[in-house]
C-alpha cells in the first residue's frame, strides 16, 4: 500500500556541499527511519498495519540534523518575526507536517529535507535543549482526584488544562496576522511554573515527539506564550 511518506517530491544529487537554502528553508539530514525503527530487542516498532496513512502522524520523522541554514529570514505572511537561533550541527525537532510535506534530496548515502524554519520547535545542542520560534516546552500535570480511594491506574491520567514549564525560548519580536502586533507582551512565565491553557493542552500544546519514537528524556508538549491563559503563584 502506498503511504504518505512515499509521496515526497524527491531529487537525487551526488552531494549537497554547495547547496544554500533560500526562502526561509533549512536543509536537514534525516537521522532516523521510523518505519524501520526497532526496540532494543530488535523488534520493529511500526508493524505493517502502522505503515498505512492513518498512522502517518505517529511514524513521521521529527528529528533531524541541521546541515545548512539561510543567511537571514525574510518576513513571511502568516508567521511571526524572529531571529535565526539555530546552528549547523544542531539536532532539530520539527512539526510532523513539516516532515511529511518536505521536499526530499537523496544522495548515495543520506536523505535530506527542506524544513521551513518556522516548523522547527526546538534544537538540541550538545546536552542542552533550546526552544526557538517563541515556543515553550511543557510536561503534563496528572489529574488530582478528590477522593480518599487509591486509584493507581487513574492517578497518572494527565489533566488537559495544565502544564509545567520546562524550557522557554526567547520571545518573538512580533506576530503577524492582519497587522504587526506584539501578542507576547506581558506574559511573565518562568521554568517550573504551573500554567493553565486557554484551550485544552491537546489543542494549545501539541506533543513534540510521538512516544513510539521518542528520543528525548521526557514527553514534552509545545506552545507559544500567547496560548497560555495564566499561571499559579
Question: Could you describe the 3D structure shown?
Answer:
This protein is 6% helix and 31% strand. The chain has a single domain, classed as 10 Kd Chaperonin, Protein Cpn10, Chain O (Roll). The mean pLDDT is 85. It has 233 residues and is mainly beta. It is globular, with a radius of gyration of 19 Å. It is built from three helices and 15 strands. The strands form three sheets. Strands 1-5-6-2-3-4-7-8 form an eight-stranded mixed β-sheet. A five-stranded antiparallel β-sheet has the order 14-9-10-13-15. Strands 11-12 form a two-stranded antiparallel ribbon. A hairpin with a 4-residue loop joins strand 5 and strand 6.
Write down the Rg. Answer: 19 Å
Provide the structure class. Answer: mainly beta
Largest sheet: 8 strands, mixed
Number of beta-strand segments:
15
Amino acid at each position: 500500500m502506498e503511504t504518505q511518506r512515499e509521496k515526497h517530491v524527491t531529487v537525487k544529487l551526488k552531494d549537497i556541499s554547495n547547496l544554500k537554502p533560500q526562502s526561509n528553508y533549512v536543509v536537514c539530514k534525516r537521522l532516523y527511519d521510523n518505519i524501520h525503527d526497532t526496540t532494543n530487542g530488535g523488534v520493529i516498532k511500526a508493524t505493517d498495519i502502522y505503515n498505512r496513512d492513518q498512522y502517518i502522524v505517529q511514524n513521521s520523522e521529527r528529528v533531524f540534523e541541521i546541515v545548512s541554514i539561510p543567511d537571514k529570514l525574510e518576513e513571511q505572511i502568516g508567521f511571526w518575526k524572529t531571529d535565526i537561533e539555530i546552528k549547523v550541527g544542531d539536532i532539530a525537532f520539527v512539526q510532523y507536517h513539516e516532515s511529511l510535506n518536505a521536499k526530499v534530496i537523496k544522495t548515495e548515502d543520506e536523505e535530506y529535507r527542506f524544513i521551513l524554519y518556522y516548523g522547527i520547535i526546538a534544537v538540541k545542542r550538545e546536552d542542552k535543549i533550546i526552544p526557538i520560534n517563541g515556543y515553550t516546552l511543557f510536561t503534563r500535570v496528572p489529574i488530582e482526584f478528590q477522593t480518599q480511594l487509591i486509584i493507581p491506574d487513574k492517578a497518572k491520567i494527565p489533566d488537559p488544562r495544565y502544564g509545567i514549564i520546562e524550557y522557554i525560548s526567547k520571545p518573538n519580536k512580533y506576530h503577524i496576522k492582519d497587522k504587526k502586533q506584539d501578542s507576547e507582551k506581558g506574559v511573565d512565565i518562568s521554568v517550573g511554573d504551573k500554567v493553565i491553557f486557554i484551550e485544552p493542552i491537546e489543542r494549545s500544546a501539541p506533543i513534540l515527539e510521538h512516544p513510539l519514537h521518542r528520543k528525548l528524556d521526557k514527553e514534552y508538549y509545545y506552545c507559544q506564550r500567547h496560548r497560555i491563559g495564566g499561571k499559579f503563584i
